[in-house]
Amino acid sequence: MAHGKYKDACNLAAALIFLLFFSHPLEANVFDAEGSDLLMGVGAKEIARGGAAVAKTNDIYSIFWNPAGLSEITAGEMSLSTQADGDLSRINFFGIAYAFPLEEIGIKISFAFAYIPRLYMKASGEFRESDFESVFLRYTLPGLSGNFDGKIDSKTDDLRVALAVSPLKNRFWSLGFSIASVNCATTFGGVTMEDPTNFQSVSTIARAVSFGIGAKYYANESLTFGLNIKNIDSTLTVAVDRIDKSGYTHNSYEVEFPIDLTFGANWKLNDVMDLAMDYQQVYGAYGDYNIDFRTLRMGTSIDDDSLSYHVGAIIPLKLASDKLEQINLRIPLAPTAGMGWHNDTVDVSFAFYFHPIISHQKGSPSPSLDVTVGYKF
Hints:
14-stranded antiparallel beta barrel, 12% helix
């Protein structure tokens, strides 16, 4: 009896949703997105270098770019970053790390913890599988049809811990390991093109544990190679609550995470200048489709006492899925630049760039500014 009343209440709620949404036209296409999964990564200094960081990284931001870089921390570090022009998340990174030697066994150990917003999105309007927005939006709601008309609000956060080890003497290598708890909450209200008369209200909670491993090889005093692999053996557990014209339903399923692989090199030209280049590929099954994102990153830095200057570029080589052969961005290259000031305890950095994803959606260069404040203790 109670179950029947609950079902009747759900059917009534579905009917009310129909009246609410179909008595008012949906907004024109709107797409806002922020977070580390949108090509840019985290950390103003690293972003200003175009994200060419897998071999260069040597501070708390190594927990994202390559946990092996944590081995170069000298004591303790804390850092906070924000996208100054962001609307969806005021913080895009917070982390703390500490390193100490173990003289008796001849190694150095580094630990780190970080909070990283991975993907925050708001969208409304009509999208098709051939739209690049559809690919990214289904990254937050993998069970959704690629052809839909409605509103999506999604937040994906990452709580990550990492460990790095390296020899105390004759150091030519370092290794890093990370584990992350990934949590995603997404709501959708709208219709799919497969069933345009069936309005749906969908609430999704997804969780995963993600593993990563990184390494650095110091070939000589000038040349360093880096490798980082994320989302190893990671499965997203998804729980979906749906109300439509049939009433209320609940189901759950599991989704494999695509692998995120980056390798690159950093070449120190002299005491003040270096050059770096990385190749990144995110590939594999996700939901009911496969993705293949390939990115080239290039950057250089000049250090002048307490000041540093950075320039770089992010070049998306391929953004594709089995639903869409190739996404051709209107802005094929994202230039980056920035500068920083530091002393023995404080580090302040700025990064200015044109976001390739948002620039494509808006049809014109979309400028962004990231700010990082770090403290050493």
